[in-house]
């Protein structure tokens, strides 16, 4: 088994109202050093290993986990995880 971590962020130029709200809230608390906030997603998967692991991960991201019109992603595959 492999632990796969998928990091998903909005593409540059896509409005992030949630990030804007968090930035405004931080600034209202006095954290004026925060100039921008972007909110993303973090997904962990436990996947059976195999020769086509990278292809399967990309297919899962492209077909379900990520909206390719609005989001970018990258993933990390950890070494064997004992379940």
From TrEMBL:
GO terms for biological process: 'de novo' IMP biosynthetic process. It is an enzyme of class 6 (ligase). GO terms for molecular function: ATP binding; phosphoribosylformylglycinamidine synthase activity. InterPro entries: PurS, PurS-like_sf. One of its GO terms (cellular component) is cytoplasm. It catalyses: N(2)-formyl-N(1)-(5-phospho-beta-D-ribosyl)glycinamide + L-glutamine + ATP + H2O = 2-formamido-N(1)-(5-O-phospho-beta-D-ribosyl)acetamidine + L-glutamate + ADP + phosphate + H(+). It is found in: Cytoplasm. Pfam families: PurS. The keyword Nucleotide-binding applies. Its EC number is 6.3.5.3. It comes from the Bacteria. Pathway: Purine metabolism; IMP biosynthesis via de novo pathway; 5-amino-1-(5-phospho-D-ribosyl)imidazole from N(2)-formyl-N(1)-(5-phospho-D-ribosyl)glycinamide: step 1/2. The keyword ATP-binding applies. Keywords: ATP-binding, Cytoplasm, Ligase, Nucleotide-binding, Purine biosynthesis. PANTHER family: PHOSPHORIBOSYLFORMYLGLYCINAMIDINE SYNTHASE SUBUNIT PURS. HAMAP family: PurS. Part of the phosphoribosylformylglycinamidine synthase complex involved in the purines biosynthetic pathway. Catalyzes the ATP-dependent conversion of formylglycinamide ribonucleotide (FGAR) and glutamine to yield formylglycinamidine ribonucleotide (FGAM) and glutamate. The FGAM synthase complex is composed of three subunits. PurQ produces an ammonia molecule by converting glutamine to glutamate. PurL transfers the ammonia molecule to FGAR to form FGAM in an ATP-dependent manner. Belongs to the PurS family. Part of the FGAM synthase complex composed of 1 PurL, 1 PurQ and 2 PurS subunits. This is Phosphoribosylformylglycinamidine synthase subunit PurS. It comes from Ornithinibacillus bavariensis.
């Amino acid at each position: 088994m492999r632990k796969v971590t998928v990091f998903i962020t909005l593409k540059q130029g896509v409005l992030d109202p949630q990030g804007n709200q968090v930035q405004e809230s931080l600034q209202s608390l006095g954290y004026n050093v925060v100039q921008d906030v972007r909110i993303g997603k973090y997904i962990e998967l436990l996947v059976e290993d195999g020769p086509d692991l990278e292809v399967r991960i990309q297919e899962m991201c492209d077909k379900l986990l990520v909206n390719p019109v609005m989001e970018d992603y990258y993933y990390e595959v950890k070494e064997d995880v004992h379940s």
